[in-house]
Amino acid sequence: MAIFTCGLKTPIGDMVAAGDGEAISGVWFAGQKYFPDTKEWVKAEDFTVFLVLQKWLDGYFKGEARSLPDIKLAPIGSPFQQKVWNILRQIEYGQSTTYGKIAQILAYESNAKMSSQAVGGAVGRNPISILIPCHRVLGADGSLTGYAGGVDKKLYLLKLEGAR
Fold it and tell me: Cα separation of 109 and 112, whole Å?
């Protein structure tokens, strides 16, 4: 199955989106940590899903788009990663949470111990930046900790959203 791709422009750097033409499977800052191998990718700048995404990103960076665009998201990852990413999707615009709180949610749901470090690993490998808002996850003390796109970008996004 072909993976289609499109370059995106943002005020904090170029991004790359990937998907099957109908759903988005990835949105990364160019060159970020965990950036995938692109050998099999096919450029498709004019696919509707990518045009809608660019328009939404333009509005998001102007502070006009608080809810997600009408785009299907299909991140590829392990069952555990999918659980973490589904929790990330529930963090509202302008809000934040911690790795520990996500671990508590998962521990409650699975009736098993869960570590903040395991959650951090899954958060760090989130393949759909901004739309699955991993930038809204902080350390237990409120510190920015890591961000695959760079801590400077995480800080920018949190300030843009007015997050606590």
Answer: 8
pTM exceeding 0.90: yes
Same fold, 3-72 and 77-161: no
Give the span between the Cα atoms of 61 and 54, in whole angstroms: 11
Phi, psi of 154 (to 5 degrees): -60, -45
State which CATH number among 2.60.40.740, 3.40.190.10, 1.10.10.10, 3.40.50.150 fits the domain covering 77-161.
1.10.10.10
Catalytic site positions: 134
Condensed to tens digits (0 to 9), the pLDDT of residues 17-75 reads 999 989 999 999 988 888 887 778 889 989 999 999 999 999 999 999 888 888 999 99
